[in-house]
Amino acid sequence: VQLQASGGGLVQAGGSLRLSCAPSGRTFASTVVGWFRQAAGKEREFVAAVRWSGGIYYADSVKGRFTISRDNGAKTVYLQMNSLKPEDTAVYYCAADNAIGLATIKFSREYKYWGQGTQVTVSS
Questions:
Q1: Per-residue pLDDT tens for 50-103?
Q2: Phi, psi (degrees; rounded to nearest 5) at 102
Q3: What mean pLDDT, rounded, does the chain reach?
């Protein structure tokens, strides 16, 4: 499954962006879709995830500012990012898989399918 991530860009602190993640030419067959980010010189970190069964999870650093959602047709997963901070600057990746437990949903190694990443830059 190829994932297409889009929506990144340059925004001032306090601004908003919406990222999109869609599988190429099909609906999501995976049951878990997550967003991760990697800043320059840092390790990839968990941002948010949604399970088709209804669970939604966020990193503490983005709670209250970011919202993950999916459309009813299961063709696109969104990450709405509000009140952006310079420390949110990173390449954002979407990822998907079918069999990830609650205990490991925040670990990037659990995800089999990945998008190419989209750059988010927040200026101060």
A1: 988 889 999 999 999 999 998 877 679 999 999 999 999 999 999 999 888 888
A2: -60, -35
A3: 92
> Strand, helix or coil at 17?
strand
Helix (H, G, I), strand (E, B) or coil at 72: coil
Please tell me the distance from the alpha carbon of residue 33 to that of residue 1, in angstroms, as a whole number. Answer: 12
Q: Which amino acid is at 49?
A: A
The residue among 124, 100, 98 whose CA lies nearest residue 1 is 98
* HEC letters along 20-71: EEEECCCCCCCCEEEEEEECCCCCCEEEEEEECCCCEEECCCCCCCEEEEEC
How many C-beta atoms lie closer than 10 Å to residue 22's C-beta?
Answer: 22
| 3-class state of residue 103 by DSSP | helix
